[in-house]
Amino acid sequence: MEGHKTFELGAIVPGMKDCGALVPYFQTVPIGYKLAGAYTIDANSQFYAYSAPVKEWVILHGFNASYLGDGLKIQVADKSVPDVMIPFFSTPFPGVVGSRTQAEPVRSFAMPYVLPPGHRLQFFVQNTTVTTQDRGAITMVGVRFIPRDDFPCFN
Amino acid sequence: MTGIFAPYFQAYVTKIISQYKNFLELNLTTRIPFTGVASENLPSVFTPPVDADALLFGANVDFDSDGVSLRVTDTASGYVWNPQSLTPIGAMAGFSANVLPVLPLTCPFFLSRQSKLQMDFVNAASSPITGGAITWKGIKLLS
């Protein structure tokens, strides 16, 4: 279909080719240790977790999590960028991620974040409550740019 | 399209739609054969075949669970939507009690006429689901 030849994200995604497909991208990053099929974050403990890099450009739209709580704190950084998205480690989870029980299950960024090829996100989550948090996982939701030559679906 | 980003993808979607003469509303429902067993790994289920290209805008499930997880693959291209691990259903589909019963994709997905979505479900570890259905909502593109 010829329509896939052209799209422009222009200034938002510098360096992207103007030829390719935009396809859904969901990367779920488990956070915590695995216990009985679920990932668990104990009370007063903290975990680092990293996304897996991919070779294409990814335009991230927002985050979803299986759980929410003001007692969970989160910090996010792109490991290939000498800066952090959350400068102080005090941001409650609901300020950054959405969950299925909310009107916005995928919490939108203020602007889409363009994750270049090979980059990965670091999530640093701290449970400041006195209760264990299970089902620990954050899902990165967005769009992946597939150059047309790499995507045999389109002709 | 969803959220404040829709304008960024509007040109892409408009370009696809402009290749066709007409469109029809399309709802693709697939039964999920959960048997109520905790952490049950189901055989793959597929969307029904469509005799035309389609654009899928979002999905709905008829159950409420944050323990059910899902992986989606486009059978024609082999593209796996979630490359690392299965994703909680709440990130991919809305349910009836939600403000958004159909959770929109960030950008609509082009499903070619020879393709189907392969869906691999895993049931929740606690409070597992029995039965279920997932509905992909979109438009059928007609030339």
Account of the 3D structure:
The complex is a heterodimer of chains A (155) and B (143). Chain A is mostly beta strands. Chain A contains no helices and nine strands. Chain A has strands spanning 20-30, 33-35, 38-40, 46-50, 58-65, 72-78, 107-115, 121-127, 137-147. In chain A, strands 1-9-5-7 form a four-stranded antiparallel sheet, with no helix packed on it. In chain A, strands 4-8-6 form a three-stranded antiparallel sheet, with no helix packed on it. In chain A, strands 2-3 form a two-stranded antiparallel ribbon. Residues 1-8 of chain A have low confidence and may be disordered. Chain B is mainly β and 143 residues long. Chain B is built from one helix and nine strands. In chain B, strands 1, 3, 6, 7 and 9 form a five-stranded mixed sheet that branches. Chain B has a four-stranded antiparallel sheet with strand order 2-8-4-5, with no helix packed on it. The longest helix of chain B has 12 residues, at 6-17. Chain B is elongated, with a radius of gyration of 15 Å. Chain B starts with 5 loop residues before the first helix and ends with a strand. The interface between A and B is large, with 52 and 53 residues.
